[in-house]
Design brief:
Elements (H helix, E strand, L loop, with lengths): L3 H12 L4 E3 L6 E5 L3 H11 L8 E3 L15 H10 L4 E6 L6 H4 L4 E5 L4 H10 L3 E2 L14 H8 L5 E2 L12 E4 L6 E4 L5 H8 L26 E4 L5 H10 L4 E5 L12 E4 L4 H17 L4 E4 L8 H11 L7
The structure holds threonylcarbamoyladenylate and magnesium ion.
Amino acid sequence: MATTSDIEKAAGVLRAGGLVALPTETVYGLGANAEDPAAVARIFQVKGRPPSHPLIVHIGGGEQLDGWVGDVPATARLLAERFWPGPLTLVLRRGSRVPLEATGGLETVAVRVPDHPVALALLSAFGGGVTAPSANRFGQVSPTTADHVRAELGDGVDFVLDGGPCEVGVESTIVDATGEMPSILRPGGVTREDLEAVLGRPLALPSTSPVRVPGQHPYHYAPRARVVLVEPEKVVAEAQLAQELGHRVGILLPPAFADAPVKAHAVVPLPVSLTAYAHGLYGYLRELDQQGCDLIVASLPAEEGLGLAIVNRLRRAAGPRPTA
Ligand code: TXA
Ligand code: MG
């Protein structure tokens, strides 16, 4: 676990233009001084991420928005007050402190206040904003432990702050808050239901948002093994068939079928609660890769609560892959 002196050291690395992996409540981030274009450029290099994909600026509190964003509509202010610190990212007009390198050239910027004591201590010791994408290579599974980060990025990162396993386990919910009719651009740790309860009305659908969302490729969050999605009641049979055809099959086994006899290379019995599922999701995918599976059979949970984010990540993990 990170000590006070680790945090001082990490703040020094950021000041010197280096990269720090930091824990957040969602996933680990690969952080750089948001106001240092050269450091920001290194993030893209280390991740292998196209420079047009905008980053999230992490700040220490909602009262620190000045300079990072332009005007803040009343609705955005309400969401910030209610959900920060927490797994909500607001897309707003870009402020003068944000270099275009961090926004992929966009005039909007994504900002959030992470709800993790180590991240908040780092932001406070550093004093500025930290741009941080998830600390994985482009398109791969996001890291939810410090060990995942080390395995994934190795020497690419100058310092890794260990804050234990991430509690939420999936990325923040991204909301386009540039206007008075916010919409969800990426489902995540704050549920649609919680957002709508605070707003007092249904959220606009993503397709109605004028905001461009670069970096939302159909293929993303993907393990090495190919992911196949089927109906829950077909998971066991599909896995068995593929196993008989010579695949090394991993299963994300829905709780309703926990007692079924399963023929597969590796089995992850899923928890009943969607909160526990989200917390474990990326770890399960990594685990099945590590066990040498070449195919993962899974089904989609209900699209309610954190289920919306899980469905989004599984769909993308199962999406068409780039031909190398
Ligand atoms: O939970 C999280 O959000 C984690 C932790 C580290 O904070 N971060 C994260 O960052 O997931 P990343 O880079 O993996 O995903 C950020 C996504 C981009 O892919 C893009 O879709 C969206 O945020 N984004 C960033 N800036 C944007 C902008 N100005 N307009 C629209 N979308 C934006
Ligand atoms: Mg990511």
